[in-house]
UniProtKB/TrEMBL annotation:
Organism this protein belongs to: Pyxidicoccus fallax
Domain called VOC: residue spans: 4-119
PROSITE patterns assigned: VOC
N-terminal signal peptide: none
Protein name: Glyoxalase
Amino acid sequence: MIQGLDHVQLAMPRGQEPQARVFYGELLGLREVPKPPELAKRGGLWFELSDGRGVHLGVEEPFLPAKKAHPAFRVATLDSLGEALRAAGHPVAWDDSVPEVRRFHSADPFGNRLEFQEAAEGRR
């Protein structure tokens, strides 16, 4: 029945769109896409990965960051991203518990957990 994944949504605090643009747009290199006008009134932002899938940030009140649930992003240059995140003040916690997958966890400016990984050839 399910044919694919369109987007993931993460929560963010109201009024923090500038911080989201810096992190998701500038640091991670995702392209911001306009939200439909009716949804834009609620705050938050939408970003798009190179394959067209989305990362949506929606305002949630009261806001609580996701500390366990998280999206996992495939990265071509994992070491470079880890260095960039660390230099920008974000945590980088390497984890070798999944065989043949290099990965680390970090957090966005709001404390949401994020995973970044390089997978072994042939793994989907």
